[in-house]
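seq/struct pair 1
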Amino acid sequence: MTTRKDTTTSSGDGPALPKLNLIRLSIYFSDLFLVASDSSEWVREPKVRRIWHIYFFSLLSLAAFSFVDHRVLDPVLKGSSGLTLAWRSFFLVAMICLICVDIVLASRHYRYLLRTRLDLQLGSIVFFRSNWVISFAILYRQLFYLSPSLFIFSNPPFVPTKLTTATYQQEILTTLYFLIYSLCTSLSFRFPALSSSSSLIAVINVAEIIGDVLFIALVVATFVSISTSRPRS
């Protein structure tokens, strides 16, 4: 006869708490976030909830890796150009994957709204729109770290080389510049302090603009569909 392992812990006379590994803890907090933001419909929809968990866990992992970068790996990276290149390339690939997950998440979310005729929420629109701009900003920043010649950057806070890593202040300022650049790109505006100097960045700029236009079209189509399906009084 087999017995089920106890998956709870207790401290003194306090309530028993479930033992959660990193993935289950991410799922738990991501569900709490959705419920707190009045997006409980996502929790009840398996397909949307699953991709949301992947996205949330990926964000936590990237944040943890970024912390490890500055606290643990920084001295090691300064002594090895190969490790520095590998680490920057890893973050670049991670951001590309995160953007792909973001596209799938937005698509499934609005397809669910179209199917259920639930109301559009301003919070979800702001969330997806902000994520799109921020994700591309970090993508541009990582490309700059790999090859500064891809951009024309006036007075950059940090000029990356094979053996130099940015301080917190330099990374924050550099990220701020690329956030403004990404936002201007999505709005088809020019940012005087930073611009593209390569066909690769130009192609990514076009991809960001197209994605932004498609997202707006998806939101408008969802709003029109929900509005026309409601009974008129």
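seq/struct pair 2
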Amino acid sequence: MTASTGLRKAVEYDDRITVKLAKIQGYEVKEEGPGIIKGQQITIFTLTFTNGSTKPLDLNNVKVTATYGDQERQAETSYFGNLNDFFGTVKPSDSRSAAYGFVLPESGYDDLALRVKFDNEHSTAVFVGSLQ
């Protein structure tokens, strides 16, 4: 497993593929409607893949998970708003970003791990740290 030393440090692979946590933002749900929980706190993570390799990078199987706390509790995924998953391929020397939302209790902000698995050739990129 490859891990960054913090939430904002990019994970770089030997073939020059890089995964970076580009942006973190909090959002309180103010809307109402089916499947929407007004007042819910969502943390949105924008991730960026940069393909420095010589081959196209397939992003059709990206899986992003978040855990928090010393017992590594699984954060609930939120598909609120216009969040988008990675898809398609990235040409060499190109990059692509996507946003993933998770419901994180404030008590989980100090001990967070975001894991990004994208294929069977590369180890999981792990970003660990605190949101505060």
